[in-house]
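Format is chain and fold; as here:
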Amino acid sequence: MAKFEPISRVTRTKEQARATYNALSGWYDLLAGMAEKKYKMLGIHALALQTGEQVLEIGFGTGQCLLPIANTIGKTGKLYGIDLSDGMLNVTSKKIKRAGLQDQVELRCGDAVHLPYPDNMFDAVYSSFTLELFDTPEIPLVLAECQRVLKPNGRFGIVSMVQVVNPGWMVKLYEWSHEKFPAAVDCRPIDAQAFIEDAGFRIISLEEQSMFGLPLQIVCAVKSEY
């Protein structure tokens, strides 16, 4: 179990989450996308993607990470993306079409608690600012699905808000907002490292960052061989 107990619960429903992100889909790049972009790119760099690999992004949002990932793995690679919001899917599909990457990128709506992909399919799975959106009991389920769809020695990378022992005022304000307005502020800090290790991954790199006073971790881990 994660060591910083208790982790705030996520009380909004999946339907509420979908409606929120559908409404934000046309504005998300302006509201949060630019602030998050630096850390997302650091997460992609940590994965050390290679030409020809098969990669899955969970929670692709407006597609900020899809284009650089697709360019890295090249035309011999294949990129898949899954997101709960059909509004985000529509926005991102248009970007993929404009970039001429329709044959290289396959997107779909879905819940990462039940990934619609076969076992041992991907060389790498990536997710940024998404794992902390799941309710606490769902996080191990999502990570177990990532283990399942990764090839042996496949890499798992995330960027996540994280808990700290002595949180500053910005963290306390953010968690207060999460408690009072759970449908709007549905993200909250988690102990990402502990969850990932508990899921059986071996962490190979961990970088700590801060965004507007909110602690982040950029983690790259490897699936065990067996």
